[in-house]
Amino acid sequence: MRDILSKLASASDRIGIPQEILTGLPIIELRGDAAIQIEQQHGITFFSEKAVSVRVSIGTVLVEGSGLNIRNMTRRKILICGRIEKLRMERGAE
Amino acid sequence: MKPLTELMLGSCELSVRSAEPETALNRLAEYEIPFWNVTPQGAFCVTLSIVYSDKAEALALMEEIGAETVINSEFEGYRKLYTLVKRPAILLSLVLIALAVYILPKHVWFVTVSGNRIVPTDRIVRAASDFGIRFWTDNQSINSERFRNEILSSIPELRWAAVNCSGGICEIVVREKNEMPERTDRRIPCDVEAMKTGTIVRMSVTEGQAVCAVGETVTAGQTLVSGINPYPVRVQQIHAQAEIYARTWYQKRAVTPNSCVIRGRILEKNVCRYIQIGNFRLKLGGRGMGCGSCAEKTRELHPLTLPGGYVLPAALIVETETVYDPVRYSVSDTFAEAVLKAYAERAVMREVTAGTILASDSAFGSDGGLYVMDAAFSCTELISGEKPAAWSGSERNNGENSERGTD
After folding, report:
1. Which of B25, B30, B36 lies at the smallest CB-CB distance from A47?
2. N or C: at which end does chain B have fewer Cβ atoms within 10 angstroms?
3. Interface contact B42, partner A, CB < 8 A
4. Do A70 and B21 lie within an 8 Å CB cutoff?
């Protein structure tokens, strides 16, 4: 899996397009401690007021905090709002 | 307040209860059903909002995965507008409001006049109507300068006029000519003459030479005070002034019929009502009848008036026709004599100038259905009046040879 991703990354460099488009890597945008937007997500695995777990291509993104809620969610993008205290990436065998 | 998109598209708030609420959310995202404001309500329940049009599809998806869904609230968005079609009163009100805002202020509704003291307002409004300024005239077609030229030529008492249109009110502002009081020019030589025939009782000569005396009887047109003073060297012309009172006499004849027909009891009364809008008249009810010999017809006009005194061209007209029983009434001679005497005295007082009635004598009688009074009045009044100075040929000189002329 990693070899495939590295080959795709070098190919995207040669073609001149962003890596994440070809490789499907997640794009995580943290806005202060109030909101986090994750693009190219593959669904949520856990959701509560204190923690939200989002599945991505390379593993799972775990967001911990308080008062968390999903502002909006589409097929590929999710926006989580609330008081964010921890952000963790857990690599998985995907 | 809801966002604009939510107001337009509508929204639906759902409560989804399931063993794994995350599965429900993933399912909605997978089928590209947008949702927002996801809030956990415990371990097995979440609330979320979706677009109103996706409600059926979302409920079907939830049912597929076995989740229990409850609709907390819904808002139809633009679909609410369709309900207006079923409420014609609201539609009509919106149309009337649009009409009132965009169309009605562009036409004249009321015409007001200001600045006039002597010329009646009705006369100015009628003149304006003749020149095209009336109810429902287009404001754009009113030309203030052309209107001023036209109305000044039709009403000579005015010296300036202008028209201002503001919304539905057309105001005509006018200024009237100031009539200067007539002044006596004392540089013009004149004589004082008698305006009426009479016997002089009192004289007061301020300027000029008196050619008559108290006690003399003078006729109308006779010179009383001369404005020409013949001096040895030259003739002096002056503006003669005098107040001369004389005794005058008047004779009057007054007649009146010795009986008349008056209204007795009411025999019949009919009321007819109309609505008049402009020149169009609509009968509401009642019946009219031809007026007989002793009938009366009255017409009451109740115009539709708005606050501020503005009168619309719509009115309720009530016409009342009353038929009376004619009764012949004989006038007593005592009453007739008193009435005729008072009438004759009023007629004399209208002719007397700054005077009073000293004595009167009357003869009263009846003649063929009439009462006749012949009265004679003796009065004292002012008889003097001014006229341009009279010249005789011998008195006209330039200063060297002067010959005193004789009248």
Report:
1. B25
2. N
3. no
4. no
Q: What is the DSSP secondary structure assignment for residue A1, as one 8-state letter? A: -
- Confidence (pTM): 0.45
pLDDT at B390: 59
Q: Average pLDDT in the B148-169 region?
A: 91
Query: What is the per-residue pLDDT for B204?
Result: 94
Instruction: Please name the member of B26, B34, B37 whose beta carbon is closest to the beta carbon of A44.
Output: B26
> Inter-chain contact A69–B36, Cβ cutoff 8 Å?
no
AA letter at B313: P
Contact of B370 with B258, CB cutoff 8 Å: yes
Contact B22 A48 (CB under 8 A): no
pLDDT at B396 (0 to 100): 46
- Whether the complex's predicted ipTM is more than 0.85 is answered with no
Of B25, B39, B40, the CB nearest to A73: B25
| Residue B306 distance to chain A (closest CA, Å) | 57
Check CB contact of B3 with chain A, cutoff 8 Å: no
Distances (CA, A) of B161 to B111, B119, B372: 14, 13, 55
Residues of A in contact with B34 (CB under 8 A): 72, 74
Q: How confident is the model at residue B45 (pLDDT cuts 50, 70, 90)?
A: very high
Is the pLDDT assigned to residue A87 strictly greater than 90? yes
* B5 neighbourhood in chain A, CB within 8 Å: none
The confidence band for B233, taking pLDDT boundaries of 50, 70 and 90, is confident
Query: Is residue A20 predicted with pLDDT exceeding 70?
Result: no
Out of B15-29, B89-103, B186-200, B243-257, least confident range: B89-103
Q: What is the per-residue burial (b if ≥16 Cβ within 10 Å, else e) of B163-190?
A: bebeebebebebebeeeeeeeeeeeebb
